[in-house]
Amino acid sequence: MTTEVLRVEKKINAEPARLFRAWLKAEDFSRWFLSGDLIGIESTNIDPRPGGRFQINMLLDGKIFPHEGEYITIEEPTKLVFTWRSHATGGRDTLVTVTFTALPAVTGKSSAGAVNKPQTLVTLVHERLANDIEIKMHHHGWASILEGLENWMAEKE
């Protein structure tokens, strides 16, 4: 086992419970879980329970790249822990922990005037990566994915 760890954080204007559930509903998940502009989702299969498995088939240049794993911990609405295996991990299981921490509401504007919007800090920690190359590849992917989650949440308002 290696000690290489990646950490990505993003503040998103949404409640922790809404963000948490977006990770576990296949129809929602496939709309925002995109790791780059040229990447699409061919299919998603999610069994959201401890011991349940998931498979995400990403599509790039006509090729399918499977990403799969198993849910270890599901503590709604604060924490998800799952294994992550793909071509980018050399087919090895790695470990991902996603936490959702409620932050003080932010003041925003609406047609009715000023409103307080819930805000959440989403923290993603990816462990057991083999080297700096895997960290760089996954940093770009996870940062894009969290950006996609933020954009998708903003569209749903």
Automatic annotation (TrEMBL):
Transmembrane segments: none
InterPro entries, sorted: ASHA1/2-like_C (IPR013538), START-like_dom_sf (IPR023393)
One Pfam family matching this protein: AHSA1
Signal peptide: none
SUPFAM superfamilies: Bet v1-like
Domain Activator of Hsp90 ATPase homologue 1/2-like C-terminal: 13-105
Assigned protein family: Belongs to the AHA1 family.
Protein's name in the database: SRPBCC domain-containing protein
Species: Leptospira ilyithenensis
Lineage: Bacteria, Pseudomonadati, Spirochaetota, Spirochaetia, Leptospirales
